[in-house]
Amino acid sequence: MSNFKKILTRSLLAMALGACGSVFAAPVYHVTVDTSTLGSGNAVLDLQLGALTGSAAPVTATLNHFLGAYGASDFSGSASGSIGSGVRLMNDAGLSDLLQTIMLGGLFSFDLSFDVGTGGMDGSSFTAMLTNPDFTANLGMGTPLVDIELMPGQADMISPANAFASVSPAAVSAVPEPSTLLSMVTGLGLLGFGLRRRAR
Predict the structure, then answer these.
(1) Quick one: DSSP state of residue 188?
(2) Which of 34, 27, 94 is nearest to 67 (CA)?
(3) Mean pLDDT of residues grouped by 10 in the chain (200 residues)?
(4) Of 21, 160, 173, 197, which has the fewest CB atoms closer than 10 Å, so is most exposed?
(5) What is residue 155's three-state secondary structure?
(6) Distance CA 165, CA 171 (A)
(7) Distance between CA 58 and CA 23 in Å, rounded?
C-alpha cells in the first residue's frame, strides 16, 4: 500500500508542476495587419527587433503561424527561420530584421512571443512597418504599425493605435476542468490498484 501512495503522490506532484508551467510562460500576441485599403501590388512588411542601447537585456522574439499572401523573405542581423516553420529574431547583433514581401489588399497575421533574458539594464523594441518595395516610402502611416517596448522587469508596452494593425492575446489551448483531472487521476489510480492486485 505504501508503494501505491508513493506513486500517487509523485503523479499528483508531476501534474501540479506541469500545470504551473503555463502560469509563468511569456504572453503570446496575435498581430494582424490590414492592407485592404492600401490598394494592390507588392509591399514589404519589415519586422524588426532591436536593442534600445548597448546594455539591453538579451531578447529573442519568436514569430509563427503566419497567415496571408506572403512572398520572399530576407533576413539580416541575428534573424533566422522561415515563414512556414517559424522565425526567430534576436537583439544580440543590435538589430535583427525580417523583410517579408507581401501582396497588398488583404489581411496578414502572425503570433509573436518574447523570451527576455536577464543581465541588461535597458530594453528592446519590436516594430512592424510597411514600406513600398524600394524602401523609399512607408505605407499606411509614417510611424511603425506595431511598436512593442520590452523593458526588464516591466510589462510589455504595446502601441498599435492605428487603423492598419492590431495586437491581441493569442488564443490559448483549453485547460481541463478540475473535475476532469480528478476523474483521470482516480481512474489511473484504480487501474494501477487493479493491476497490482492481479499480479499477486
Answers:
(1) H
(2) 34
(3) 69 55 64 87 90 79 90 89 90 84 90 81 85 84 84 79 76 58 73 76
(4) 173
(5) coil
(6) 18
(7) 22
